[in-house]
Specification:
mainly alpha, two-stranded antiparallel ribbon, 9 helices, 62% helix, globular
């Protein structure tokens, strides 16, 4: 746990203070010779982890090896949530997001490794039902933990909010328009990265369904990195505003990722 906390803080500091930002989106190093088109890079990020649960369940079946014959709704729900998250991202890359730059290969490989680690870890937790004894007992008797419906609702709310704000970003500019725009609509009036906020909400729903300490550690790690990246994003907007390269002033009191707070 101490190692995870140290890594999380390091990720937040390096991203937030622009010591090191993973090279995609506006932080990609376009001068790098080791890069691939952004759309291809994004597909490589999300497609492999999307397949972890479907392939795993197809090969070994869903259930708990430690409790032979235990096939619960919980296993299917957790697999469906993780798969749905990455499937949504793949669909956004193919049909929603607009790309004009490139993605650094090193960053792409690093992020694939992180996402695969996350998906595989959740699969292992699901396969061996590494949750509290009370949750195991309840899931065995009823098919799922009582936390599952709440987690699913939180996940759905986060996914819908994330999709909505991604759509707002995708529709900021008309075809052929290369000017910088200040995002507007939804929670963009409060924070510069509401799509990060909603993604964290979604993963909190997954953690609640998972009912395992490691899942909450993963959410904490994501929160640290995304908070740092949101800080860099706000600095990026402020720099563009000083250079008068934005279509309108930044919202008053604009925060990074948590409305009214940070």
């Amino acid at each position: 746990m101490q190692i995870c906390c140290c890594v999380s803080k390091l990720m937040a500091v390096t991203a937030g203070y622009q010591v090191f930002n993973l090279g995609y989106s506006k932080f990609a190093n376009q001068a790098s010779s080791c890069k691939i088109p952004s759309r291809l890079g994004m597909l490589l990020l999300y497609a492999p982890p999307m397949l972890v649960f479907p392939l795993g369940y197809a090969v070994s079946g869903y259930g708990t090896p430690a409790l032979p014959g235990t096939h619960t709704t919980w296993h299917l729900v957790l697999g469906a949530l993780v798969t749905a998250h990455f499937f949504k991202r793949v669909m956004e890359v193919l049909f929603l997001h607009k790309f004009s730059g490139s993605t650094n290969v090193f960053s792409c490989i690093l992020i694939i490794g992180l996402y695969m680690t996350l998906a595989v870890l959740l699969y292992v937790i699901a396969s061996y039902r590494l949750a509290s004894p009370a949750d195991i007992q309840y899931a065995t008797a009823h098919g799922w933990s009582p936390k599952v419906p709440i987690g699913v609702l939180i996940f759905a709310a986060g996914q819908l909010a994330n999709l909505y704000h991604h759509w707002l970003l995708a529709t900021l500019r008309k075809p052929g328009d290369r000017s910088y725009k200040v995002p507007r609509g939804g929670a963009f009036s409060l924070v510069c990265c509401p799509h990060y906020t909603s993604e964290l909400v979604s993963w909190m729903g997954v953690a609640l369904v998972t009912s395992h300490f490691a899942a909450y550690v993963m959410v904490f790690t994501m929160a640290c990195y995304l908070s740092g990246r949101a800080r860099s994003t706000l600095i990026w907007y402020e720099e563009k505003a000083r250079l008068e390269k934005l279509d309108r002033p930044l919202p008053s009191g604009w925060k990074r990722i948590l409305p009214f707070v940070y």
